[in-house]
Amino acid sequence: MATKNPRDIALAEMEAAFGLVPAWARKMPAGAWPGFWSQLRDFAQAETAIPAKHKELIGLAVSAATHCRYGVYLHTVGARLRGATEEEVAEAGMMAGLTMAGDTCLNALNVDYNEFIQDVDKMVAFARALQPGRQTPLEAGELR
C-alpha cells in the first residue's frame, strides 16, 4: 500500500474542511503545502487567543493596505461568515487606512523613534493614572 505524500494529505484535509480544493491551491509548490495547511488549519481558521472573526478582520485590513483584492474578498466573506457586521468590516478598512496614513506621515517626517516611544509611553502613563470612570480629555470631547 502506497503512503500518501504530505501535499496529498493536506489537500485531502482542505477538501474535507472547505468542500473543495481551490484551483489556486493546486498551483502552490508541493513543498509549501504541509506548513501552509497546518498554519491555515491550526491558526488562521482556529479559535485561538484571537477569535477567528477578529483574525479575518485583521486579514481584511492587511489585504486592503497591501492592495490585495484576493485577500480583501476572502477575508471580507470570512469575517461575515463569522458574524462580522458591515460596520466592523468598514472599521477594519478604516483602521488600515488610518494606520497607513499615520505611518506614512511619521516616516516622511523622519520622526525620531526614541522620542516617539517616549511620547507614547507618557500618553499610556497618563491614561493609566486616570481614576476609574474618569474620561480622558479626548473621551470627554474636550479635544474636538
The biggest beta sheet is recorded as: none
CATH architecture of the domain at 49-132: Up-down Bundle
Which CATH C-level class of the domain at 49-132 is it?
Mainly Alpha
Count up the helices: 7
Q: Number of DSSP strands? A: 0
Q: Classify the fold: give the CATH topology of the domain at 49-132.
A: AhpD-like
Distance between the termini: 72 Å
Write down the overall mean pLDDT.
Answer: 90
Category from helices, strands and their pairing: mainly alpha
Strand % is: under 5%
Give me the Rg, rounded: 21 Å
**Residues in helix, %:** 55-70%
Secondary-structure element string: HHHHHHH
CATH homology-level superfamily of the domain at 49-132: AhpD-like
Taken from the alpha-carbon principal axes, the silhouette is: elongated
Uncertain runs: none
Kindly summarize this structure in a few lines.
The chain is mainly alpha-helical. It has helices at residues 6-18, 23-26, 33-44, 52-65, 69-81, 86-108, 113-129. The chain is elongated and about 70 Å long.
